[in-house]
């Protein structure tokens, strides 16, 4: 079991195979500070090889997911002068891009639970989740151009999530929208009208994750993410090798046997 880092901007709670990771800066609607970025990256690095963690649930405190980047951090970086010639604003922005890449490629299944503000960086974080649920009343948007800046690190992940045409519309108009439109756009996979219903839907998703073989889930996520970047023949060769290994492996044998015996496989958790 991985040792989780001490965090000031996050709440961490492990429940069996599920890690609940909560953004915890309620006074700023969980705006993404550099400290939060570093802590999130540290958590995902710590659990990367922990096969006991099947899923990570991302949400925020105080009725909001994340209001975007911390403007105070940006202003502070603008006034700094790095002695080594590096640009503090570049480093701040690029660190968030690394976080998005690392969250997207995490071997665990990531589930984003979205309430209140889901803006800018929060929108980007939602777009790299494997499963996203939201309240219908949640407010989404890419407000960067209305602030005179660009959605620099977020843009590629938004385009991959909802397509270039819609991403252009959202980014170039600063359009804000609710959970039902987020569902229609494909940002989220389901939405709820109340907090109680949202928690019920989260419970259903986690139940399904617990009934999937953890090793097979990790290999499947890696395969899906490689579709855009790996030549097809090479990808299919690798997929066939992984498939053969899975069929001969413990999970494949146990899954087949459990199906024939009409019982739950050993990895299925209640």
UniProtKB/TrEMBL annotation:
GO-annotated molecular function: catalytic activity
A biological-process GO annotation: isoprenoid catabolic process
One protein family per Pfam: ECH_1
InterPro entries registered for this protein in UniProt: ClpP/crotonase-like_dom_sf, Enoyl-CoA_hydra/iso, Enoyl-CoA_hydra_C, Enoyl-CoA_Hydratase/Isomerase
Superkingdom as given in the UniProt entry: Bacteria
Family: Belongs to the enoyl-CoA hydratase/isomerase family.
Protein name, as recorded: Enoyl-CoA hydratase/isomerase family protein
